[in-house]
Task: structure prediction
Amino acid sequence: MREDMEVLQGAIDMHAHTAPALFRRPIDDLELAKIAREYGMHGFVLKDHDSMTCGRAYYVKKNILGIDPIGAIVLNRSVGGINPYVVQAAVHYGARVIWMPSNHSKYHADFYGISDYPQLGRPKKQLKGAGVTVLTPAGELTPETLQVLDIVAENDVCLATGHLSYEEIDKLLTEAVKRGVKRMIVTHANWSLCKLSIDKQKHLIQKGAYIEYVAVSCVSPIFYEQTPKELAEWIKTVGSDKLLLSSDLGQYSGPSHPEGLRMLSASLLDEGVRNQDLVRMLSENPAKVLGSI
Result:
């Protein structure tokens, strides 16, 4: 088997966008499951910016054998923002990842000037609203955020930072550790508004977080942020022990999620990233952060 396919055997994509969604998505849940199975992957986390995906994961698992879909939720305005009641229901339904707000975050809206993606846009209009933040005007974590952290800790699920600012991420993860959260992901640290310096990544790793790199930043013509060469240097510098490699794909302009991961893996191998580092980032670390092993 070719090395770029070999590293995908047993992989878990921690960041997969599919249809149905309020953004245009070329691949639906069942189609992704079939493609992922063909590539030898173990599973994927279904991400929808506007709704919980646990029910969708349940039906994929019933209909496509040999693949493990995982439900999650993003705390955008569409689900009530940072709402402890929504988070509690989601984890009771089986959500394994709780993302902080993405395109509805205050930081995202300030960065782009809109609560949306300049590269995509929605077919249907959305109501305007205040950007969602984890901080009070005084710079402290909000009571709702603290309650969400307690729910995440109590249920031993994964907290992901979404599109928060570095200041928000730092304060959130510090308090998360104090409250007993054991599984934390810094979302797509190699993409756009969330792109972090190596020093900041290492600082957050010291708190116990996994740093997520996403393929979309290297293989998408509309979300292109980084060369594989630069990403390879990041991996070599940071070390793969606390890194994840996800796709964040699901756009009409890009490849399928497994193919995007293969494309980037092939490029990283060419840049000298070791096979065992990619396996750790694609399979071993995702299983650890999800609690599968």
